[in-house]
Please model this.
Amino acid sequence: MKYENTLQFAQKLDAKDPLKKYRNQFLFPKHKGKNVIYFTGNSLGLQPKNTGKYILQELNDWAKYGVEGHFEAKNPWYSYHELLSKPLAKLVGAKPEEVVAMNQLTSNIHFLFVSFYRPTAARNKILCEAKAFPSDQYLIASQVSYHGYDPHEAIIEVAPREGEHTIRNEDILAAVEKHKDELALVFMGGVNYFSGQVFDMKSITKAGHIAGAMVGFDLAHAIGNIKLNLHNWDVDFAAWCSYKYLNSGPGSVGGAFVHQQHHQENLPRFAGWWGHDKTNRFKMEKTFFPIPTAEGWQVSNVPVLSMAAHKAALDIFENAGMNALTNKSSKLTNYLAFVIGEINKRINDKRQYLEIITPLNSSITNGCQLSIVAHGNGKALFQKLTSKGVIADWREPNVIRIAPVPLYNSFEDAYRFGEILQQLLLK
Ligand SMILES: *Cc1c(COP(=O)(O)O)cnc(C)c1O
Model:
């Protein structure tokens, strides 16, 4: 498609957008009385207008039934998480019995490492991306130390080549091959939070398995953003949070995937009563019998209020569908990249050039995030954007991250963002 950097063109694309009705289902923060340009759905998704209603339902049932709400509530709390398995399975490309909504992201990865990171003297290394999200770095190092190994030796990080911003897939595969006799686990993000790079999870999983390692992914920036196919890719385990692209509210309940092939293996795990066989959970007997699905990794009972917010958001995804979302996402992100490109052409002072480091035409899918190295005085530019009603995200030393999300961002948002940039850079 041939893009134009005009308001009229952006509005024409919005008029034709099959998802345009969803924008009005979200609550936007205001700046000087108008909606902000909200480009941080990759950090905290906006609140659906329905969320309050879903939470209120549970508050009312709690008031009405007290403890009986576990079974008497409209959506019985005892099994509330089960309502979320089907929609989550669709989002990650899994069978419903392979996913479970529970805990939070970093906690879930720790629990999954108990089962899937089982180092031996010969095989104790973990391969991951360099500059992973800090929580993941701390997590990996602490797991390695917990098992008595040295993080400096046991963690293999694959980094971008000198002068490059993203990691070449061939370099990841080569590193797996190189360490094939000592790898216990390959664990990476599905989408790197900093660069927005989507990793080729299919080929990485295959390479990891050929090397004899387990393979897991942190899907914080992938779920609800790109199409996933965990079951068919043969991924062993994965986990995610729900407050970024999934719009389920700050700190809301996370989720986990465990491939079906591991359900009956009786893997070691940290157990709790909610992972125990449902049919006799309340007999409160001594021996732990795990539910033979991903639910067998649950530990605690269900945080219903945050699950209600999660359900409100997932119902929107059920309605909109990932196909339509990724179709729009690709157009919208490319349009925004085009608008930025048009501005770059007119920047005389090359020191202020905006360099998009997110791969846009890779052979695998793109997400919606654009990471921009703001050459020159990036921090000042970012602050000015904020003062003009653009909510973006700043990462040291010089990166502005913007994520136009297909559920509630518009082509007009992208155009208006460009207009503001232009005012700031082309004076
Ligand atoms: C957002 C994010 C987290 C946050 O972890 P919590 O346990 O939810 O606080 C972890 N890892 C990655 C890659 C993230 O993007």
